[in-house]
Records
---
Amino acid sequence: MATTELTARHMGMVSCHTCHLLCTPPDIQERQLACCPRCGSTLHGRKPNSLARCLALVIAASVLMFPAQMLPITITSALGHTQSDTILSGVIYFIHSGMWPIALVIFIASVFVPFCKILILILLMLSVQFRWRWNPRDRTRLYRITELVGRWSMVDVYVVTILVALVKLGAVASIDAGPGAAFFAAVVILTMYAAEYFDPRLIWDVMEETDE
Amino acid sequence: MSDLMACHECDLLTQIPPLPKHGSAYCQRCGSLLLSSKPNSIERSLALALASLFLYLVAISCPFLAMQTGGFEQQSNLITGVWLLYKQKMEGMATVVFLTCVLFPLLQILGLLYVLLPIYLKRRARYSVQIFRFVQQLQPWCMMEVFMLGILVSLVKLAKLAQIIPGPSLWAFAVLIVTSAAQLTVLDTHDVWDALGDSDGNH
């Protein structure tokens, strides 16, 4: 495999985000858009306003993280007795009842991953903004992992759905979804979008700038 | 078709030689996967998409889980779960679950069939380009495998409360997760884009 040590940008080319066709876009006027000749997607050298969009979504996700973690996600009522559970109290309940694997799954998916994802995205944005030269390969890998793992955070939202659907026994017990669950779903969706908007090529652009 | 490709994670241009069967090319600078050789990708993906469609219909129409407590049995399937959430004024969450576990997977399977079948039969279909683009954009939002993990967690959670009987749809769903993930992993999207690009003619 021959590497040219040149980027598409150096050659004045653009790789289509959707179908990865290398194109040479024509000179375009302001407020005009170039389209991929093969799949018709709009062509951008880099994702447009990548940092600003990513930052906005990360801020929104961080704010919603508070109600998501502090408000109850399920409200259980059994025999006239009601109990509200937040994500963390659910984890603690599982630890107390000796179900370690489940406690670990919920903790990783609902607490560890969302927090890490927000921190990693902030770190990556800072690294691009302040032109850090630290280990671009590892930072790209970090981004790739963040993008892949994020979806698994939805698991708690699904658990709530299934519990609500199944435990509708009326007289005996019922489980209702609490407000925290909706906030948590919003956090997961916002961070998924944030990761999608971040452009890992920005990490490498910085490296080239200082090489020259 | 040019063999020159830009890495979509670091933008480095790489000349890609003809790949051996099942071989892959990785970016030398950032290590991301550039291209892998997938023989018969369109036929395989088409077969898996057909299997997925069949399994989807079973998974949607049969009872999913049944819960038994003292002679009282409650059955539910995917749709009733969503509907119950909706009735509880949790419209937002109901929509999220409906889209990611019911609608998007279906659209993905149907879209893939719509695009691949004509390519396989060497015909043209209208709007194939737009639909395939949509199928690719949909991919991160189909979360059936995450839903499956959610089922496992809730089963453990409910084990004490009542007896849970898995319905036929649960097994169909478990296999559906495998086939619907495989239908896109075996597919070489470059093959599809090449075929669609050719049939478009003038571009």
Note: The two ends of chain B are 13 Å apart (CA to CA).
---
Amino acid sequence: MMQIEVNNKKIQAEPGEMILTALKRAGIHVPTLCYLEKLPPAGRCRICVVEVEGRKDLVTACSTPVQENMKIKTHSPRVLNTRKKILELLLSNHPDDCLYCVRNGQCDLRQLADEMYIRTRDLPRNVKKGEIDTSSLSIVREPSKCILCGRCVRVCAEIQTVNAIEIMQRGSLAYVGIEDDKGMGESWCINCGQCVVVCPTGALAEKSHVEMVKDALGDPKKYVVVQHAPSISVTLAEEFGFPVGTDVDCLMVAAFRAMGFDRVFDTSFSADLTIMEEGSELVHRLLHGGKLPMMTSCSPGWVKFVEQFYPELTENVSTCKSPQQMMGAIIKSFFSERENIKPEDIFSVSIMPCTAKKFEANRPEMGRNGVSDVDAVLTTRELAELIRLYGIDFKSLKPEEADDPFGQRTTAGKIFGASGGVMEAALRSGYFLVTGKELEDLSIEPVRGLEGIREAKIKVNDLELHVAVTSGLGNARKLMDQVRAGRKDLHFIEIMTCPGGCIAGGGQPRNADFEKFKARAQSLYTIDKNEEIRVSHKNPSIIRLYDEFLGKPLGEKSHKLLHTHYKKRELYN
Amino acid sequence: MISEKKALTRHADVPGMDVIDHYIKDGGYQGLEKALKRVPQDIVEEVKKSFLRGRGGAGFPTGLKWSFLPKEKTKPFYLVCNADEGEPGTFKDRIIMENDPFLLIEGMTITGYAIRADLGFIYIRGEFKWIAEKLEKAIEQAKKKNLLGKNILNSNYCFDIKVMRGAGAYICGEETALLESIEGKRGEPRTKPPFPANVGLYGCPTIVNNVETLACIPFILQHDAETFKLMGSFQAAGTKLYGISGHVNKPGVYEYPMGTNLKDLIQYAAGGVKNSKKLKAVIPGGLSATILKADEIDVNMDFDSCLKKDTMLGSGGIIVMDEDTSIPEVAMTTINFFTHESCGQCAPCREGLAKIQQILKNLLAGNGTANDLKTIDELANIINGSTLCPLGEAGALAVNAMIQKFRPEFESLVN
């Protein structure tokens, strides 16, 4: 540790760390715009400039390492004036239509304008132009609102290694664009929405399905069914001012009913179903010389990633549909038959932590006879918008339970929401499927965690099952390169598109840092620890579904409804 | 009267300098021969003693820069020659490369030895295609003579040079943007630290030197530090290539002792202002340098003297303007250039320069307001000291100086 002096007070700093890190630890707030946790500093926006004694120029707190006895002023007149002027420059090119903006009320730029005490428009305006790009099924781009902080580009390149968006042109003509100025929907964007989460303005947003859902709820001819993904109940809380990680499952169910949804189902149920099918598929591949390692297929961003960048590995991806699509298929087949409602009269809504799910629901193979299995996908953020639209006072709701038959879940399905959860659930049931016995300790710690690539070996009878788990496509790429180069020891790989898994998905509440991700994941594992049924194969509703309708895992009906296929996807459409 | 001193242009009158035998016959490669008999550290010390300062514009002591390389060598070291000569009003490096390519190659070969480099790059501006080809041919000749490549002159020293052409961006003359460009990325300056001497090209320790700087090295080694120093004036070491352009009778590149008076350079080297007009203003060191009014040109053209007069020697590109020149138009051209060449990475440069451009354009079109000059001044003041690299502040300060020094001309534009 060393000492530095900030605003005439001494604080501690670690050698080699950036000024901003030391300031944060000491609770001294310096505004940032382009800064991103866990990525090297970019120094682009210059909003975090501070004054260092003895230096002619201001320095950026994010990219300047501390030095022993450095004397820093974080809010000197020069600093405040510079920050304000830089922000005024950005605002002078910004459309200023906050009232109509998707980020109304939740905009980093607006917040900063308030913090910098900007009250007048002094600079001549030159509002940026740029057509709204609605070509993607998942993400809408509004270039005129972009302030070129570069966060989206860095997340896409440095974390996801997808490089779908990039800075085009230069100087004041620079803009975030797509190769050949195509639309995002024509690009190799995998729809993960990590760019949307980090965008400080309304330049990037999910393609909204709120209106669609509102219309369906108001249509007396529609039977509106909703499913909610495992992670939603532990992240929605943040939108309504609960502490991070609060599980609001039963309040959310009550909110659905209050808004007029006819049935409320839990995607964690179909996660259990996924485990039955995927676990059986793994056992089948192991016993019958199928393609290994098998890879999970729950995460649609990852699926598109494989189809585009590792087409030779598509056969390794499990043929199981994702839990969203399994639930969708069951609702529009079994449920539709049983309730005697035509599939086209059912409006099937899913609440997802994810923007890629909007793309997935639109894949042509995800439906039958021209009827989609899932009609609308709302992100967690959109669900909060819907709840506010219906004037529901979320905090005063009385808890309610989800509906039968697909509201019943085990905690194995629930932990799908965190990176490693699918693997853990699959191992619990896979072990049982092969040995007929339950694992002694159901908590499989080595596969848990939000970062890096984790590997584990589990003894299943004579076989030592070697598994790997990772999240974030940069990490996935590392693993895939190993597999492509001939690595043979792995049997099963779980991959989630977003770093940390669904709790950190592209559809989740914004302004979350790594600590918040940990709290969200911890909430899922607490649920898992505290409940009775922790293995998918013991879910009574799953057992009943197989008895009454599906027959057995990998059976004929399953094959038709719950499994799918992948194909090589060209980068250039 | 002032007199030329020829260190860099010493072969200028000998034709066919692009043939290696001619270069050797005229004394070429004696510097390298002598250098290889010494240990690398010794050469670094010699260059330090010569007081050679970087000729790209910043004037950083060359020997000192070299000594920032790590002592331990765990990765390859690279030497990069910055030949991206793009500063408006600057055309000195091309003279060296066109007329005397081996001078640069020999300089790089000696420098490579001094800094223990494994490979050298010449990053040359894209428009200099024919010069790049000339350099490549010269490199081939040097290799055939064992003056480049493996075991140069039967020593243990191995060094090769690759020529890379830029794609037309001014910002790639900034050393870290240049490195990004060589790596095949967008030409955007990096945040510093780390500096290239520690983390440079492909993450390896790298020294970036200007063409003219490297071209000084053979002279220093062929003679010695003291002789080089004496080529300069009493306050600054060595010679300088001054590129004089604009309203003068004999525009061109002239080699004079570092620190030669600007007034004399215009009068005697360039033959004075054209058509016997009166002098109005001079930009002394490339477009980034602060403009001087006619009564401010009694300045010695070396780094420190220029700084004392609140301008800079920069690249030594002297732009002379006569009495008929409209400074607001010069300001407009200047801001157009910098706005166009901003990489767009950092907000104050990208948005600030464009805003000054917007205001000036309005002003020149007769739509200005009384407040405009104050706004430009405020913007220039926050761009200065807040940008990621010097481009933004160079543009803003250059234009603001024009406004401050020729204010009535700008004020007359306001209705």
Note: Chain B has three domains: 20-230, 239-315, 327-411.
